[in-house]
Amino acid sequence: MRKTKGFTFRKIFPPSHKPSLTRPRPFKAYSFVPFSPLAMLDPTILTVGGIVLGIAIIERILERWGVIDLVDQFGKIMRLILPVTFYSALIYFFVTFMF
Fold first, then answer.
1. In this predicted model, what pLDDT tens digit does every residue of 10-24 receive, in sequence order?
2. CA-closest candidate to residue 46, choices 94, 84, 93
């Protein structure tokens, strides 16, 4: 009968190096998220956008009906309202959601 050599687990796999129990120094990590698409679902932004979109749709309908004088009046008003609304909404968005 042949005698076999016994291998212990420790001979095959030496014990792993145990890390020291000293913990690294904590540090402050800052994160900055400049823009979130979900922020556009703010009720104020949606209301202002809906009003402007509604006026544009009314202008198109009046143009199809042939009421050109009224369409010209809407066009003059929209030339003033659209830039003011856009920049106001942009400023509101950045002031509200950035800080």
1. 666 666 666 666 767
2. 93
